[in-house]
What does this fold into?
Amino acid sequence: MIEITLEVNGETRRLSVESRRLLADVLRQEFNLSGVHIGCAQGACGCCTVHLDGKPRLSCLTFAAQCDGMSVRTVESVGGVDADHPLQKAFRSEHGLQCGYCTPGFIMTLIPFVDAMTAEGRMPGDEEIREAMSGNICRCTGYQGIVEAVRKVIGENLKEGAQA
It folds into this structure.
């Protein structure tokens, strides 16, 4: 067993983990975070995406022991219980979700992209948005609603920035 310290969604805990234990399993079992979905367990679908020290990372391919001393942020930390983060709202309004299984992974993947585009002050094209989300698979939506959701949030952010 390896002793590690993780800060997960603002809560710091010391844990004993086996060296082969995956971050996704620790988050689901030790922290009771059901928003970390295991879709493929091979890093192909993106459903398990979390932020590790601020960067999107596939938790099904990351050993918990590698994360000692790091900050982990899951979809549960985004938008609260009402899922009212602007990107989550846009997913609803633009029909970017159907069954919802892949949605947490898309949200965690796309938040840094939306933030980067807003900081740059530009609206990306559809191809660039599709490239940003290319590590995520959705079997229900056809992706266009997701692209529209991203465009909506970036557009709203840019409009707010212009008014400030």
